[in-house]
Amino acid sequence: MASVVKINVLTVPAEQREVLEKRFASRAGSVESADGFEWFELLRPLEGTDDYLVYTRWRSEADFEAWMAGSMRGAHGQAAGSGQGGPGQGGEGGEGGEKPKPAATGSTVWSFEVVQSAAPKA
Ligand code: HEM
């Protein structure tokens, strides 16, 4: 069965880049123990786009869906499903506990199936 790649494409205004990277730096780290999880990378744009890519790879679509329905919400501090009001809870509660402003102004998910892959020769 081919692995699936799920990429969350985050539109991040230039002045919010540092905030986003700081939030990922204090991320929950629970995805590492999710069933069927294979790989995660946060990709910072250098050329050709201003969007950050949150790259995740999974053993199957079902494993990804199970994570989205389960520990993904805890890992995002609140229901990521609420559009832009989604995650970004990196322990930066504002005065009086109000939720921190999301760093991303937009997000969309790209889905791929791994057709071919290669690793460095041992
Ligand atoms: C509303 C859409 C979303 C936004 C704005 C967003 C933003 C964020 C932010 C800021 C973090 C850092 C931790 C935190 O502050 O909570 C995070 C964690 C993460 N996000 Fe998202 N996210 C969204 C949806 C998704 C989706 C659909 C995926 C899957 C492709 C994804 C994959 C991840 C992963 C793997 C982590 C690390 C979780 C962990 O450490 O356990 N996110 N996200």
Automatic annotation (TrEMBL):
One of its GO terms (molecular function) is monooxygenase activity. The keyword Membrane does not apply. Residues 80-94 have a biased composition (Gly residues). Residues 72-110 are annotated as: Disordered. It holds the Pfam family ABM. It comes from the Bacteria. Residues 4-96 form the ABM domain. Keywords: Monooxygenase, Oxidoreductase. This is Monooxygenase.
